[in-house]
Write a structure and sequence with these properties.
The structure holds two protein chains of two kinds.
Chain A lengths: L16 E5 L11 E7 L2 E8 L7 H5 L4 H9 L6 H16 L5 H29 L3 H22 L8 E2 L2 E2 L7 H24 L2 H7 L7 H7 L3 H6 L6 H4 L20 H22 L21 E9 L2 E9 L7 E5 L1 H7 L1 H4 L5 H11 L3 H5 L1
Antiparallel strand pairs in A: 1-2, 2-3, 4-5, 6-7, 7-8
Chain B lengths: L8 H14 L2 H38 L15 H11 L10 H19 L16 H9 L2 H11 L3 H32 L4 H6 L6 H4 L1 H18 L11 H4 L9 H25 L13 H9 L2 H22 L5 H29 L4
Helix pairs in contact in B: 1-2, 2-3, 2-12, 2-14, 3-12, 4-5, 4-6, 4-12, 6-7, 7-10, 7-15, 10-12, 10-15, 12-14
The chains are: A alpha+beta, B mainly alpha.
Chain lengths: 375, 362
């Protein structure tokens, strides 16, 4: 007689399985690996595995001089390369108490905002593609190309510019710069309406993003989610308003705050920001004063011993640079507070219980750039 | 002997008579079957290659691109070059995959679409089999393809493939209903399920005009649900490249992948042909009652051209919304079918039946 054993029966619905999204996956936007545990189509939990593109930029900075560090910062968040450069330049200028010419500050503000628009355009492309609308990708890249052409004409490169130097700029802007930027603004004001027509107003897109991946204001603050993603939750975190640098305290622009904190609000934040950036550029582009494109700097830059911190508003949030100097020409210790790392950390929190398709959309709306996470 | 591009019946009869004079009846039928099989195979391959080219060009124009323009005039031979490449590529064997099912799946998918094409009337007298229940046959056969997709996902030993296959199963089983019911609406109006009789019934006006509002609603529902049934965007959840890399055919390579690819395009062609035949009059020219001169000019265009023109018009609509819409989510997809399309369809059938009973149609 066989004894009947009551084995603990696990219901099939309760069984979870894991899939590896990445390092090679079309929608992780780089070499990010997400270990997603799923129940059917529903995401139960998720674990990001970083480090596939870790290059040790912070350690490399310790043996480089400050002008050299500029080139490394390009390679963190390569989509807002100018803004990363700006952070280091501002830090060095603040530490040495250099008076930067007015012309430099104007040009830097304009170029930063152009860079922000270019970055948001690429985000829009890839977000559209994550949602399955492949045409968006080509619309966004077509317009981004115009900005890259302006960059190429003035700074000689399209992606990693290293245009700013401590104390000024690498070279003066091209004579066509102002004309080209004005043409672009005129062009893009028309084209951004296409963006709304093809994606924002689409009923499928709105149904898929509204109420999905809700991040509350408290969570945004405690996870340190900044940039458009944080502002979508109502967290007023725009460094340009709260700790103004460059010309941001003189120009007129709005810090747009959302209330919902869902994927659609994060989407709308960036669409609004592109329009605000165009407004900033329009105010400045005609008023660039004449003058030097760089302050007189010593050949070897040595920061006085001490600790320094500088923050800027990169396209994805607050970028902080922290330097400990021992008075030599290289920093003793350097640390970047990258916006993407904090933004990624919230992914698990807001994507529990959603479907895989929503996970991709949430990831797209957080807009992470992997080299900035891994550094 | 008078052959005409307006009527292929005499041509078919001539072949039949010629074969029966020279062979006994068994061999005559056998030879006819081989001829028809080869003709359909050739047509299948040509249309498949052309559709891939057409899709590339259409999506290029929608996306500010040029599309293929290097191989041959206007890049016309690009798909042929791609096909040769796919044939020469290595067939990767997957570890721990169920080899038999894995190899069988692409054939099931392609045979299903191959069988469906046999019942479609291309022109007067130009169809392989004219069933009494042609519409039913096509619906039955075209839904066999999902078995291939499920097998492909199951046997690939890949979780992405499995998710894709399960989505595809849920999707096709639900949208099958809408396809069937929207065709049923027109069958009530036509009074027959035979394709040739349906086309003949549209000699004095296409059903989309004859059955006015319910027929138009049925046409829209048919377009939506047939797009879903062929796994094309915005209903391409089974492949969903941004979520599942390539869905059910992630692990397939070379010619096996090409089979899935070709079957997808041919399924699109088949549903477009059914839409053209049932709603837009098939090979029947566009006629307006009373305008004898206009009708005579329309009759001058060969039926085959009419058929191809209408089919490609429907295909173009399907491409248009593939390239402009984002993808739906699985729960929204099922909500759309069960909560919206199905009730609308059922009410629509009742209205159509009422209209036919009262004789309010044209």
């Amino acid at each position: 007689m066989k004894e009947v054993v009551n084995l603990p029966v696990k219901k099939i619905e309760e069984e979870e399985y894991h899939i590896n999204m990445g390092p090679q996956h079309p929608s992780t936007h780089g070499v990010l690996r997400l270990v997603v545990s799923l129940q059917g189509e529903i995401v139960k939990s998720l674990k990001p595995h970083c480090g596939y593109i870790h290059r040790g930029i912070e350690k490399m900075c310790e043996k480089d001089t400050y002008p050299q560090i500029i080139h490394l910062t390009d390679r963190m968040d390569y989509l807002s390369a100018h803004i990363n450069n700006h952070a280091v330049c501002l830090l060095v200028e603040k530490a040495l108490e250099v008076d930067v010419p007015e012309r430099v500050i104007y040009i830097r503000t304009i170029v930063d905002e152009l860079n922000r628009i270019a970055s948001h355009q690429l985000w829009w492309c890839s977000f559209g593609m994550d949602m399955g609308g492949l045409t968006c990708f080509f619309y966004g890249l077509r317009d981004r190309e115009k900005i890259l052409d302006i960059f190429e004409e003035s700074f000689g490169s399209r992606l990693l510019h290293s245009y700013y130097t401590p104390g000024g700029l690498m070279m003066d802007i091209h004579p066509n710069f102002q004309k080209e930027v004005k043409n672009f603004i005129q062009y893009f004001r028309k084209k951004i309406k296409d963006y709304d027509d093809i994606l924002t107003g689409n009923i499928i897109m709105q149904e898929r993003t509204k109420g999905i991946g809700v991040l509350s204001r408290e969570d945004a603050i405690s996870y340190g989610v900044t940039g458009p993603s944080g502002r979508a939750s109502g967290f007023s975190c725009d460094v340009r308003k709260r700790h103004p640098y460059a010309l941001y305290d003189k120009v007129d622009f709005r810090e747009i705050l959302g209330t919902e904190g869902d994927t659609f609000t994060r989407y709308m934040m960036r669409m609004h920001e592109m329009r605000e950036s165009m407004k900033i550029i329009e105010q400045l582009i005609d008023n660039i004063p004449a003058g030097d494109y760089s302050a007189k700097m010593k050949a070897v830059i040595k920061l006085p011993a001490g600790e320094y911190y500088q923050r800027v508003e990169a396209a994805r949030g607050e970028l902080g640079v922290y330097v400990v100097s021992d008075g030599s020409k290289t920093p003793y210790r350097m640390k970047f507070r990258s916006p993407n790392f904090s933004n990624l950390s919230v992914l698990d929190h807001i994507s529990r219980g959603v479907k895989i398709a929503d996970l991709v959309a949430i990831g797209g709306s957080l807009d992470y750039v992997i080299p900035d996470i891994d550094r | 002997m008078n052959f005409s591009i307006y009527d292929f019946t005499s041509f078919n009869q001539w072949i039949d008579r010629f074969l029966r004079e020279n062979l006994n009846s068994f061999w005559a039928i056998a030879v006819e079957m081989v001829i028809i099989g080869l003709a359909i195979l050739l047509f299948y391959a040509l249309v498949g290659l052309f559709l891939v080219y057409a899709e590339r060009k259409v999506c290029a124009f929608m996306q500010n691109r040029v599309g293929p323009n290097r191989v041959g005039p206007y890049g016309f031979f690009q798909t042929i070059a791609d096909f040769i490449k796919l044939m020469l590529k290595e067939l990767i064997t997957i570890k721990n995959a169920d080899q038999f099912l894995f190899n069988l799946a692409p054939f099931i998918v392609i045979i299903a679409s191959f069988m469906a094409i046999a019942a479609i009337p291309f022109a007067k007298g130009l169809h392989a089999i004219d069933f009494d229940i042609g519409v039913l046959y096509v619906i039955a056969v075209s839904s066999l393809g999902v078995v291939g997709i499920l097998l492909a996902g199951w046997s690939s030993n890949n979780k992405y493939s499995l998710i894709g296959a399960m989505r595809s199963g849920a999707q096709i089983v639900s949208y099958e209903l809408s396809v069937g019911l929207s065709l049923l609406t027109i069958i009530i109006l036509a009074g027959t399920m035979q394709f040739s009789a349906i086309v003949e019934g549209q000699a004095n006006g296409w059903f989309i005009f004859k059955g006015h509002i319910p027929a138009f609603i049925a046409f829209v529902i048919f377009l939506i649900s047939s797009t879903a049934e062929t796994n094309r965007g915005p209903f391409d959840l089974a492949e969903a490249e941004s979520e599942l890399t390539a869905g059910f055919h992630t692990e397939y390579s070379g010619i096996k992948f090409a089979f899935f690819f070709l079957a997808e395009y041919m399924n699109m062609f088949i549903v477009a042909s059914i839409a053209a035949t049932v709603f837009l009059g098939g090979w029947m020219p566009f006629h307006v009652g009373g305008w004898a001169g206009f009708n005579h000019i329309m009759d001058f265009i060969p039926p085959f051209i009419w058929y191809i023109g209408k089919t490609f018009f429907v295909i173009w609509i399907m491409m248009w919304f593939k390239w402009t819409f984002p993808r739906l989510r699985i729960d929204q997809l099922l909500t759309l079918e069960w909560k919206y399309l199905l009730p609308i369809n059922l009410v629509n059938i009742l209205i159509m039946a009422f209209i036919v009973l009262m004789g309010w149609h044209f």
